[in-house]
Amino acid sequence: MNSIPFITVEGPIGVGKTSLAKLLSEYFQYELLKEIVEENPFLGKFYENIDEWSFQTEMFFLCNRFKQLNDTRDHYLSKNIPVVADYHILKNLIFAKRSLQDNDLQKYVRIYEVLTEDLPMPNIIIYLHASLDTIMARIKKRDRDIEKNISPLYLEQLASDYDIVMNDFKKNNPHIPVLDFNGDTLDFVQNKQDLVKIIDTIKETLNIGAFKHESTKKI
């Protein structure tokens, strides 16, 4: 891999994306890009009534992620500063296709294609996935007010959507490594060895010794 590392962590709600992105950012000394979630003024209403608030919710996320990725390119990647993010812009389509009605979805996809045509894209994806029981337990543990009305059925459908999209991504983008990790069997927050396993896989994939930004700290 010849370009500067741009790692993204993806997966369904509650699977641990932000926690892992933070740990990787600290270990590899990479810049951390975190998505805006709780700042979305429509999200709580969305979980209460998906049909009514889906378009506003998805457009807010799309516009904010567009701005974040533009800034990431200008302030970090263009200066050869590696980045690890807790999302991939592709997630916008996953959520939109699950929640938007056909007419709104068509409009949304057109806007998405225009906004993302020249955005920087990650050169490695970490895909976290887990069972519904694990996801529900982690959502309950973090106890966010905006997630208290989230439907288990919605979460289950979303996890299935992620599996389909990520499998398709692997087939259509063989040049971009996708590293799969099962959240049911790995606890990288509480178990040091699980985190080491993930870090070692990333190092091997990125051929880390080839980069200037290889300074790391002990776990």
Automatic annotation (TrEMBL):
Pfam family, one: dNK
PANTHER family from the UniProt entry: DEOXYGUANOSINE KINASE, DEOXYNUCLEOSIDE KINASE
Organism of this sequence: Niallia hominis
Annotated ranges, domain Deoxynucleoside kinase: 7-206
Coiled-coil ranges (or none): none
Name the UniProt record assigns to this protein: Deoxynucleoside kinase
Gene3D superfamilies in the record: P-loop containing nucleotide triphosphate hydrolases
MF terms (GO), sorted A to Z: kinase activity
Enzyme Commission no: 2.7.1.-
Keywords of the record: Kinase, Transferase
Enzyme class, first EC level, given as a word: transferase
